[in-house]
Amino acid sequence: MTEALARGWLLAWIAWSAIPVGSLVLLLIHLVTGGRWGETLAPALRPAAALVPLAALAFLGVAAGLPADYPWATGQGAAKADVLRLYLDPALFLLRAGVTLAGWSLLALLCLTGRCGKLAAGLGLAFYGLTISLVAVDWILSVEPGFNSSAFASEIALHQILAALAWAAILSPPGLGARGASDLAGLVLAALLGVLYMGLMSYIVAWYGDLPPKAAWYMKRGEGAWGAVLAAAFLAGGLIPFAMLLVSAVRRSPATLRVVGLLVLVGLALHLAWYVLPAYGAGAGLAAAFGLPCLALLAIASAVFLRMLRRREAGRAHHA
Predict the structure, then answer these.
(1) What pLDDT sits at residue 213?
(2) Do 122 and 60 form a contact (C-beta atoms < 8 A)?
(3) What residues contact 107, with CB distance under 8 A and at least 6 apart?
(4) DSSP characters over 57-87
(5) Where are the domains of the chain?
(6) Which of 2, 57, 137, 233 could form a disulfide with 271 if both were Cys (CB 3.0 to 4.6 A apart)?
């Protein structure tokens, strides 16, 4: 039961944290490039990016469940001895996560307080690119060592950006209008195509490589109900939103974009579950069952945290 709870928390944390981190990345990109889209989406992206420190705090639950989440933490699993000694070490794992989450939290603070200029944003994006290439493997792929993909970090980065855009579509910031909705729809479509392309090409490369560890990883995720989970993720988060976004009336309507955003988030959550849960074998179903209340708890904590921030800002404005 404790193992299932720890694994459910891990999955919920990975899925939920994609929105704050993706929002931070989009804010940094806008600081570098500028553009109407960033100003339009700021009312949705800024509160979400403010949750990055909360994501860092919530990672303590992952750290507490490390032995249950990652077999290598107890010396089990298929990881080689030199990999365990030089990389998959609990202390090094927590150090990488701590540096990453602290850096992301600092970048969020700088963005939200207006202290992040174009140079700092560029350096922040470089820091994000470096750290996501490490922690994407740590947090997701290392649940089942043996499989590796040079494109995996890019896939997860696109997942996070798409999650943030889907969240913005659901919120439909005030003043979005038909023009802003069209801009947002174009961004969602581009990120969605990126996620689909990277996932498909990773599979094709692994298939052509004909390497046993990669084949075993994909075969496990095609057995039983996992094939249906992947199909549901593709339909709900990929094919249906893609088809909807091809319709000009949908792209210009904030109301229908909310439906697109919700479908995309459901699809992303299912896809992340497909990445993580099959590694736990027979315990995957119970972990998924615990993942839903954990996700609800994180959502409630987010609402409380944002309300506290709003009250604090209102109090500062009143005293000023």
Answers:
(1) 75
(2) no
(3) 24, 28, 52, 116, 124, 127, 128
(4) HHHHHHHHTHHHH-GGGGT-SS--HHHHHHT
(5) 2-319
(6) 233
